[in-house]
Amino acid sequence: MAQSAVLQLHPVPSTTSTPRSRRHRASAPFCRTRRHDSARPMASSTVARASAAAPPGLKEGIAGLYDESSGVWESIWGEHMHHGFYDSGAAASMSDHQRAQIRMIEEALAFAAVPDDAANKPKTIVDVGCGIGGSSRYLANKYGAQCCGITLSPVQAERGNALAAAQGLSDKASFQVADALEQPFPDGQFDLVWSMESGEHMPNKQKFVSELARVAAPGATIIIVTWCHRNLEPSEESLKPDELNLLKRICDAYYLPDWCSPSDYVKIAKSLSLEDIKTADWSENVAPFWPAVIQSALTWKGLTSLLRSGWKTIKGALVMPLMIQGYKKGLIKFTIITCRKPQTA
Ligand SMILES: C[S@@+](CC[C@H](N)C(=O)[O-])C[C@H]1O[C@@H](n2cnc3c(N)ncnc32)[C@H](O)[C@@H]1O
């Protein structure tokens, strides 16, 4: 029922006659599985069995959440499923929010100093946790690059490919169902490794970053934009009980495993011998985002879409105020981490 609600919102081509084995495989030859066959279709009900050390039900829950909610999100917010980037303290209107989401992509590229001259711009990009592929299509257009997106959600992969076809980008951007912790790509394939707000879903951050590093070409840039909890003080061994409790309520609604801090990511990147490691806290720059999402959920269109979508989406909407609380307390840190794979091993 949830999926049919999503499909009603969008003119996604009918898939009833397409065999499952072809439906969620990358269409662009460049993105086809070469390492192992984890790009075979993983319907939501089978995702949990599909590998790695995820807690039982986590991958299935993530796939189900995005299968259910992506159509609603797209109908209200468009193709980008990430925070917007705003000038600190600025007020913003709804049209500014979509611009702010594009700005988030541009700010991330600028922070990582990704070159855009013809000789050095990225020609191959992986979008890890791609949603419905908004970043991939943007980057494919910007750089003329080949982009391969992976997501756990079959609905997202299918919608990403439909949008790429509609935008004349099928030969440049392609989406498939695959696990970020076991990517279906050979070593050293991508000039730019992009993870926009998917890291928070990863149950094993070391494995997550090591997979990003594995598929990166020598000298490639890795960009991770993600939700973290604050760094611990030297005197602390863990967050405070009320902080853990707040995060647990957010995790339960959004299918998130344990969080880590920005300095945990830096430690992991160092342990993998990655270079030029940089981080920044962009929490102030994303402050207008959640109030705007709540406002859009409280419109007639927002409320009716939510009611049609299903329980996972409604549960997600109900905890949105907790995200604002987390930012205000200084507990949640919206973080960018960038680094480079060494030219030589
Ligand atoms: C908040 S959405 C971000 C989407 C997209 N990056 C964007 O900016 O529009 C999180 C995405 O991470 C994906 N994801 C979460 N865990 C994943 C995993 N283990 N492997 C692949 N994708 C994953 C979800 O399927 C979803 O597409």
TrEMBL record:
Q: Where is this region: SAM motif I?
A: 125-134
Q: Which domain of life is it from?
A: Eukaryota
InterPro entries, per this entry? Methyltransf_11, PiNMT-like, SAM-dependent_MTases_sf
Output compositional bias ranges, type Low complexity. 10-19
Signal peptide, first to last residue: none
Domain Methyltransferase type residues, every copy: 126-224
Family note:
Belongs to the class I-like SAM-binding methyltransferase superfamily. gTMT family.
- The protein in question is named Methyltransferase type 11 domain-containing protein
Q: Which organism is it from?
A: Brachypodium distachyon (Purple false brome)
